[in-house]
Amino acid sequence: MERPLFVYDAGPGEEDGALRRLAERLPEMPKGSLLFLSGFLLDRLPEELTEAIAERAASGELELLGGGLYSPYLPLLPERDASWQLADMADRLEELFGVEVQGAFLADGAFDLTRVESLAEEGYTYALLPQEALAEPAYAGVEEAGVWLIPYRGETAYFAPRNPGAPFPAGWVRGADHPRVLPRQNPRAADLFAKMRWVSDKLEEAKRPPEEAYQRLYRGQWGRAYRGQDPKAYRFAWRELLAAENHCDPRKYAWLELYLEDMDADGFPEAILESHTLTLYLRPALGGALFAFDVREVELPLLAGRSLVPHLAERLDALDRGGWHRVPFEATKYRDRVHLAGRHRGFTLKATYRPRPKEQALELEWRIGRQDDGGYQGFFAVDLELAEEPRPLRQESAKQILELEQLALLFEAPRPFQLAVEGSRARLVFATEIAPGKTRRHRLEIRILR
Prior knowledge:
Layout: E1 2-8, H1 15-25, E2 33-37, H2 39-42, H3 47-58, E3 62-65, H4 79-97, E4 103-105, E5 111-112, H5 116-121, E6 126-130, E7 138-142, E8 145-153, E9 156-158, E10 171-172, H6 182-185, H7 187-205, H8 211-219, H9 231-248, E11 256-261, E12 270-275, E13 278-283, E14 289-295, E15 300-301, E16 311-313, E17 330-334, E18 337-344, E19 347-356, E20 361-370, E21 376-385, E22 391-395, E23 399-403, E24 408-412, E25 418-422, E26 425-434, E27 439-449
Parallel strand pairs: 1-2, 2-3, 4-6, 6-8
Antiparallel strand pairs: 1-9, 5-10, 7-8, 8-9, 11-12, 12-13, 13-14, 14-15, 16-21, 17-18, 18-19, 19-20, 20-27, 21-26, 22-23, 23-24, 24-27, 25-26
């Protein structure tokens, strides 16, 4: 049996257009149609459209599909979050339209056998998968729980006769090998995935976090953002996760916590420096890269890419070839700072990150030496991959300011340095001379100005 399928999987900023299309199409939807509305649409659904959908659903002309509330890729989520999103979507549809949900629409077909039990436990009896992944209906069971997988193509779902031997995929997502490897295929996806897991664990451990914290977490789990290819989607999800974090962390008094933990289960620990005002995340195993610098008061992620990776070269035009992006650093924490230590191409480098949360500032120090006690004359540089294009305000030899939309960044150092801005990248360059057997120390302070 073939059934018409209408999917309105709108994301943030797409709601108005999707609602107009839905209102125009609703009266023409044939009897027996399946209808999916993302949580972003349900949040904005006008009363008259809600009533019209509810009337057609009550008469049996439409069947509402559930799934993850804010169109997550369920296999990427902690099990508890996948279950909560599925349950919240079912509750929302029953509250709005007075229907009990049976079927689930999976955003981009993101499926994994590990989520079969979650679907079944939350009352779903079937889930739709694109026909590229599923040739015919198949039953996927895990121990005593299971769901029917139903193929669809375009605007048609195919409820064909059931074959007990029908094959089904262990995991699938449109346009990629498997949903669980998406974080390994794009650095931005990996960083957002790490942030999401960290915030989810925070909510799980917090005492009585408000409901708003969970809603912001769910919105920050929007699947499309976890491909890492859409800067707007990435930034939206990150800001929602930061808002969720703010709802469950105390911000009425000053505090600073340092952690060395594997945030994203890749086998390598990240360094987390978080306070009531600032949060920083480092990847010691990948050049010590700073992959996030969050200003909590304005819920603003400053970065859009991995930053502050060291570059050393004898000529300015060779700095891009002298990056330490793949150099593994050893990370240690001590009281109010994190230390990184690494070796590369005959150099030793020790970096120190020390947040000053009361002043919304970060102190940085790099100590550079030669492994062979030889000398060096050239340049040391680090980049900031900012989330927006800055505008230089004032430049002096040892103090420079970049203006962003909501705040400004003050860079100050004891020694002169150059600040070059190209698009959203800001490069800080220090002329560096190392005497034989000695080290050279560069210090920098980054201060948030409001």
